[in-house]
Specification:
There is one protein chain. The termini are far apart. The longest helix is centred in the C-terminal third of the chain and has 15 residues, at 112-126. The protein is 34% helix and 31% strand. It is of the alpha+beta class and 170 residues long. It has a single domain (14-168), classed as Gcn5-related N-acetyltransferase (GNAT) (Aminopeptidase, 3-Layer(aba) Sandwich).
Length: 170
């Protein structure tokens, strides 16, 4: 299979940094989430502005209801952080409930999702968590395949119209 020419335009050449998100990241998190949601197979599309979504993420980060971590790389003369993906765990950390995992479409298929999950797993274990759990859209085969590669299995549980996947932590 030939790799599209535009793919190489967005190859990350700098090392990725994993860190906890701050309110200052909310705008970039919102942009990544909305862009990623456009390419995933969703039952109901996200119909919200970047401004509204950024406000929601700022509140989630500030109130601690979601423990959110970002994958960033440094860019430009001033070495500003560019958020290329994020993962959010429902508080408390030991719940292990992965609420969101989004990668910017510009940087998909470069291992960023795996990078984030590999950093989250030990944090959940250290907090006493026994499993990672996530809810996925039934038709989002790309997400199913990703989580299965990371060791998740389908459960018999459903939440609303979502399929629950689980990975036991040893």
């Amino acid at each position: 299979m030939q790799v599209p020419e535009h793919f190489w335009k967005h190859m990350i050449k700098e090392p990725l940094i994993f860190r906890q998100a701050t309110v200052r990241d909310a705008w970039q998190i919102a942009k990544v989430g909305l862009a990623s949601a456009k390419v995933e197979v969703r039952e109901v599309p996200l119909d919200i502005s970047v401004e509204q979504f950024a406000q929601i993420w700022a509140e989630r980060i500030q109130d601690g209801s979601h423990l959110t971590y970002v994958a960033v790389f440094k860019q430009g003369l001033f070495q500003r952080d560019v958020v290329c993906g994020y993962v959010s765990i429902e508080a408390p950390m030991q719940s292990g409930h992965v609420m969101t995992l989004y990668i910017s479409p510009d940087y998909m298929r470069q291992g960023i999702g795996m990078f984030l999950m590999q950093h989250i797993e030990p944090l959940v274990k250290a907090a006493g968590g026994r499993a990672l759990i996530t809810d996925v859209q039934p038709r989002n085969v790309m997400a199913h395949n990703f989580y299965q590669k990371f060791g998740f299995v389908f459960t018999d549980e459903h939440r609303e119209e979502l399929i629950v996947m689980r990975k036991e932590l040893l």
